Structures are given as C-alpha cells and as structure tokens.
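ok trying this again, last paste got cut off
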Amino acid sequence: MAASVATLSLGLATAAEARTQIRMVGSTTVYPFSKAVSEQFVRTNPKFQPPVIEGTGTGAGMKLFCAGVGAQFPDIENASRRIKASEIKGCAANGVTQIAEIQVGLDGIAFGTSKKSQAYPLTTRDIYAAIAANPFGAPNKSKTWKDVNAKLPAVPILVYGPSSISGTRDALGELIMTAGCKTNPATAALEKSDGDKFKAICTKVREDGKYVETGDNPNLIVQKLEANPNTIGIFGYSYVEENADRLRAFTVNGVAPSFETVSSFKYAGSRPLFVYVKLQHVRAVPGMREFLAEYSKESTWGKGGYLSRLGLIPAPDAIRVKSAAVAAKLTPLDPATIN
C-alpha cells in the first residue's frame, strides 16, 4: 500500500517506474556543498543510489523545480538566494504546494582578480556606478574605474559576472548594486514612490560590453581573468577562498571577504544559502529523509564541520537549530513569509 501511495504521489503508472535517485538542480555556489553531502550520504547509506546534481543556476533551477510533481521533476533546489513570491506562485500553479526551506549556511559575493593583477579598494557605490546600465538614472558612460571614482586607477572597466538566471546575479543586485544605488538620496527616494523604476535603475546591468555574462561557470571566469589582466570577476566567496593561489579579492567598503566578516555580516556581500525540498516527493524517492538528515548534522554544516572545510560559513546557531528542525520534521514553508 505504501508503495502505491508513493507512486501516486509522483503521478506514475506503476511503482516500477519510480525514480530511485534523488535529483537536485540549481545554484552552482551551493553545488559543491550538496555534492559533498551526497558523497557522505552514500558512504553512510550504501543501500541508496548517489544523488544526481545539476548546476543550472538558481533561477533556472527554480523553473525546473517548480514545473510540477512527478518523476521527471527535481526533488531539491539548491539556491544562493531565497525563493521569490513569484516562484512560490509558479510552483503552486503547477501543483508544487508543499516546500521545505532549509538554510544550509552563508556565503558572500566576492570580487576577485588574477594574481597577476592588483586589487584596489572598492565601495558598493563604485561597483554600482561601474556596472549599472543607468546609474542614478543616467546612461552609463564610464569607461575606466577612474571615471567612476577619481581615487581609483585609470583601468578599463571589464567585469565578468553571473547571468540573469543566477542566484549570484540576484544577490549582486540586492546586496551590492542596490546599496550603491541608495547612496544617492534622490534615487533612494524612488523605492517608496516608484518601486519598479527604482529596481530598474538600481539592478539593471549595462549591456555595452563592460559587463560580460559568463554563465554559471566560475572556472571560466578565472580563465578570463588570467587571460585579461586588470579585469574583475564576480564569485561566491567560498570559490575565491578555495582558489586563493590564483585569485586575489577586492575589499568592499573597506572590508575584505573572510570567514569572520561574512559570518558577522560585516562584509557587504554576505548572503544565506538554501536548499528547497519538494515534500510531495519525500515518500516516493528513496533516501530523501536520510539525505536531509546528513545535510543538517552539526558535523556537516556546523562550526568545524566538513562543509566549512570546503568554504561554507556556518549560519548563526539559532538558524542552524531552526533549519535542523525543518529538515527533521519536514515542515512546509509558509508562503506568507515570502515577500
């Protein structure tokens, strides 16, 4: 009977057609952490098949995750930003009505350059003025960093960054560009008077070749930086730390990205990382409960856990306790808590 119920919950004809592997999609930032957890999960639970993980980018992954309930749809979404209200509605429209939200740790939006190049101090205003399509409402005509800030070198602006489907791109807009945009009082005032115009001015990236989308492949960005001295790449902090032999990080607002500054949110680009679980799949796909149990152990995501050795910064104690309870009880997310 249980097998039949599980099969029906996935919309399958027979139990034999049910999937035997967990399928995850989403953030390339969260990908290495979920991969490490999946490897430990299989070692601890050899009766289960290794999960299949695809680094699609957060936005593209959300579309796949929210597309429906059934064996052809993913079970878990890795996300480098919180799910949006519009995505919750899209999920519900396709029958995905039970979702658990688990914050797995913290990361930061980091700005790096090749070891062959020099890093100089940047502010959120500098970054915004350099890469926004219409900084403070006027077309971007800046060609060098000196055009942006007289204290910066006359180095041509060329930034390699995430695409529009990436959670890192969303976080770039929310944490860095919007903060820089708000340094202008007139632009900041638009947030209340004309929210759509405010968002367009503050988060739209220029398209004249000064900002180059490189998809969700940080290795490709590093190759671009090494081939083009004095250019800047945008990464998750964990990747910059892991590749410290090839990259040097820029300070932002006088603060360098580090374990301490990201975990304390002193660094401007600090952000939470999540996994979203399709609860309607839990009974049908073998190993989902066990996988979530592995992810939420203190020895996994806690201070000194094996994910911290890969660059994940542990969430505050209270958040880890709350997230572990969600993982254990499979508590669904209340859509009303999403702005």
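PB: full thing came through this time. DSSP finds 15 helices and nine strands in the chain.
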